[in-house]
Amino acid sequence: MLILARNAEKSAATHAIRLLRLDVKLPQDLDNWSDRLWYWLLLHTKLQWVMAWMEWQQHQDAKLYLRLWRLHLVTSSVSCKGFK
């Protein structure tokens, strides 16, 4: 579990750096009831389900970064054309 926690911290830092490079605001830590429910569910479920959820979440994050990167490429090429 410690290794998973360390990997999650490294992954979060990497994702934050990517978002900053794409000039995207970092999401704020929100402590709302739905987040608390998810945390509680993850703490009280089987490890296999938690691992599956983590893999699904990483897949969702990867799709988001691809969309942000494509948007960045489109907007940066449009803004560069105005200077030519």
Summarize this, please?
The protein has three helices and no strands. By secondary structure, it is mainly alpha-helical.
Described by the principal axes of the CA atoms, the overall outline is elongated
Largest sheet: none
Distance from first to last alpha carbon:
53 Å
Supply Rg: 17 Å
Counting DSSP H or I runs of 4 or more residues, the number of helices is 3
Number of strands: 0
Q: Could you tell me the mean pLDDT?
A: 79
Uncertain segments of ≥5 residues (pLDDT<50)?
none
- What amount of the residues lies in strands? under 5%
Q: What structural category do the secondary elements indicate?
A: mainly alpha
**SSE pattern, N- to C-terminal:** HHH
Q: Provide the helix percentage.
A: over 70%
Describe the structure in your own words.
By secondary structure, the chain is mainly α. The chain contains three helices and no strands. The chain starts with a helix and ends with a helix. The mean pLDDT is 79.
